[in-house]
Each structure stands twice: as structure tokens, then as C-alpha cells.
Amino acid sequence: MGNSDFSWKLADHPKLPKGKTVAVVVLDGWGEANPDKYNCIHVAETPTMDSAQAGAHKWRLVRAHGTAVGLPTEDDMGNSEVGHNALGAGSIFAQGAKLVDLALASGKIYDGEGFKYIKECFDQGTLHLIGLLSDGGVRSRLDQLQLLLKGSSEHGAKRIRVHVLTDGRDVLDGSSVGFVETLENDLAKLREKGIQHASGGGRMYVTMDRYENDWGVVKRAWDAQVLGEAPHKFRSAAEAVKKLREDPKTNDQYLPPFVIVDQSGKAVGPMVDGDAVVTFNFQADRMVMVAKALEYEDFDKFDRVRFPKIRYAGMLQYDGELKLPSQYLVSPPEIERTSGEYLVHNGIRTFACSETVKFGHVTFFWKNMSKFLVTLELHSIFNPG
Questions:
Q1: Kind and range of the H or E element at 359?
Q2: Of 56, 54, 55, 48, which Cα lies nearest the Cα of 25?
Q3: FRET partner for 246 with CA separation of 20 to 30 A, picked from 6, 22, 214, 342?
Q4: Which residues does 20 contact at the CB level (< 8 Å), separation at least 6?
Q5: Is residue 355 a contact partner of residue 382, using CB atoms and an 8 Å limit?
Q6: What are phi and psi of 168, to 5 degrees?
Q7: How far apart are CA 208 and CA 226, in angstroms?
Q8: Catalytic annotation present for 176
Q9: Domain boundaries, the chain
Q10: Is 313 helix (H, G, I), strand (E, B) or coil?
Q11: Residue 109, exposed/middle/buried by CB under 10 A (0-12, 13-18, 19+)?
């Protein structure tokens, strides 16, 4: 349909009178699947939802995973972002993992402005890759990292350091050992090309905080990834993960930070002037804080000790309003005609709210992709100060 033929006009609802207040409740993570003992929603007591389903207005199921929301395969479980971004659009837009897959498969990722920007450092500096080591497909994927390592090497990177974050949230706890060993086997073949692990830590304890809940998480990342300093030092990432997981109180999500050192005990991968950095997660919310630390000169959330002159790019742009980061390897999806835009064009006022740890979904995802939807951020109400 051409733009000239398109109308924003919404037909009147056949039953609801005009001016009626309507609540749209997004049950993030709620779904229907086979009713067995592993299905927590089936096992739980849910009288309110059971009553709603048994009433006169039964809900309709909407697919929120896989190819229906622009993800690569039906096995991709999806995430909050891909559902909220395109709410009401009635179209499928390639998002997140799918966008990265297409860019890697076509090789266009290496022709883009973001890669050209970091490539300026390849002759003299080190390329640092930071992100979640997982195959969960929610925030990153191991196979994408493997392709990016290979492609970066083939496109001029002479020295690469990988800073891994163990998962245990989007995948089973304990799976980090296998992921690290898989990557180390790859790196062993590439070591003569100057590629190796540099640091690591659990995703919820190192790097991946969100909505400025705990800057200490990013501070621990900065110390290990940038300064090359951590309480634990190992000769390999596999040794680090296995050893640290021996503590019964430790799991993949909260693995303490570690650095890889050489024979003399010196960290192999601190960041220095002239280096390039890529955060390879494709989902945005848990990358914004570290992006601020890497990019902002006037950053004041913690003492960075030193701020190396680097060239930094995200896998995607993580915050469209802040234009953060300013450089990225894959362009974000151009999503249009979402529910928010329809409401505004029809003069319907909206009020959107969420509990604290999801407030960004109504103030960032919806607002960014529905450019004219005005929302009220309630973070200060739920979390005073």
C-alpha cells in the first residue's frame, strides 16, 4: 500500500462506547504451551487468568516468538524488545538476531560505517569484543561471535581480545563451561593471528545491569575489561569458569570477574589508546550503561581511573533517543505504523506505566518505535531517589 493510499483512521469499536477507558495489559513472559509438570504457568494457581479465559471474552493467542516477530527460526524464544517494538504494527520486521544474521551472511556488516570506523584501529591497536557467551538467542549468540571473530580477522584485525560474560539465565546454569570450551577451541586455531580471551564474569555481576539500577556491575566490568584488574587471575577462560564455579554459592549469572594473564602474571587484554571496542549483544537494554561508560567523556557514575581513547561501536544502536552508541555495526529496524502512532493520529490520549525493572519497556521500546506516543516514566515513583 502506498503512503498516498494509507489512512490512520480507526473504525469505531462495535461494542465499546467512545471515551471508554481501555487497559492494555502486556503479560511479558506469559504464554500457553503443553500442560506438563515443567510448565510453570500450568502448574501455578492462576484463578484470575482462569476466570478471564472462562468468561465471555476469551483471549486470542498471538505468537510472540520465532519468525512471527522477525527472529531467525521457530526455535528462537524471543524477548521483551522484539514484541514491544512492533506492537500493533501488523507486519513482520527483521529484528535483533535476524538483522545481525543477515548482515553477517551477506558480509554487509564489514562494509558499513560502523565497521569502517573501528577498522581505523586495526593496524596499530587491539579489537576488543565484549558480550554474552550463550546460544539462547535472546541477547546474543555464540555463532554470531564466531563469525564476527573470523570476519574481523579476515578484514584486517591483527590482534583481538574477547571479554566473555557467562549466561545461566537465558540458558541452563552450568552451560557456560561448554560455551567457553567451544570458544577456546576456536581461539586455539586463531591464536597465531593474535586472538585470545582477555576477561570474563557473570552477566548479572559484571557489565549487564540495566536502567541504572547498580553501577557497581559496570564498574566491575570496567576494572576487568578496560583496566585489566580483577580479584581472580587465570591462564585460560575455561580454567577460570571451572575453578570459580567450584564455590557452591556461585552460578553462571553471578560469576565473579576474572582476567586472563600471561606467564609473568600480566593481564593480556587491557584497553589502551588506539584500541577498538565492540559490544556484540544485539538486545539493547543491558548494554546502554556500559555504552555510556565507554563513550561519554563527562561520565561521572564511578571513577574510571583512566579513559582510553578508543573507537567504540555497538552491534546495534542501543538507545535511539540518546543516539548511543554513536557508531554501530548493524542498522536498527525501521518499524512504522505501530499501535502508539495509530492512537496519536486519532487523538487518543494514553498513559503507560510499568513496574520498576520493566519501566524501560514503556519509556524506551514503545516510545522509540512509536515516535509520537507520550509516556510517563514511573521509575521515580516505584524507586524513590
A1: helix 359-360
A2: 48
A3: 214
A4: none
A5: yes
A6: 75, 10
A7: 15
A8: no
A9: 1-93+348-385, 96-314
A10: strand
A11: buried
Active-site option among 51, 80, 91, 152: 80
Q: Nearest Cα to 338, choosing from 100, 83, 63?
A: 83
127-133/258-260 β-pairing: unpaired
- Break the chain down into helix, strand, coil percent, rounded to 5: 35, 10, 55
Phi first, then psi: give them for residue 372, nearest 5 degrees: -105, 5
* Confidence (pTM): 0.80
Distances (CA, A) of 295 to 68, 228, 376: 35, 18, 27
> Could you tell me what percent of the chain has a pLDDT over 90?
58
Q: Is 353 helix (H, G, I), strand (E, B) or coil?
A: coil
| Length of the chain, in residues | 385
User: What is d(CA 284, CA 96) in angstroms, rounded to the nearest whole number?
Assistant: 9
Please tell me the predicted confidence (pLDDT) of residue 4.
53
Report DSSP state, residue 255: P
- Give the cell for residue 297: 567523556
pLDDT in tens, 124-177: 999 999 999 999 989 999 999 999 999 999 999 999 999 999 999 999 999 999
* Neighbouring residues of 313: CB distance < 8 A, sequence distance ≥ 6: 114, 115, 117, 118, 276, 277, 278, 325, 327, 328, 329
> CA-CA-CA-CA torsion for 30, 358, 101, 241, nearest 10 degrees?
-90
Q: What is the pLDDT of residue 373?
A: 38
- Please write the tens of the pLDDT for every residue from 261-272: 999 999 999 999
First to last CA, the chain: 48
- DSSP-assigned letter for residue 277: E
Which residue intervals of 257-352 are DSSP H helices?
Answer: 288-295, 339-345
Rounded CA-CA distance 107/109 in Å is 5
User: Which run of H or of E encompasses 161?
Assistant: strand 160-166
- The domain 96-314: what is its CATH number? 3.40.1450.10
Report whether pLDDT(382) > 90.
Answer: no
Dump pLDDT digits (tens) for 317-347: 998 889 999 999 999 877 888 887 888 888 8
Which residue type sits at 41?
I
Domain 1-93+348-385 belongs in CATH node 3.40.720.10: yes
- CB atoms under 10 Å from CB of 330, counted, come to 23
> Letter for the amino acid at 384?
P
Q: 133: which strand partners?
A: 166
If you ran DSSP here, which 8-state letter would residue 191 be given? G
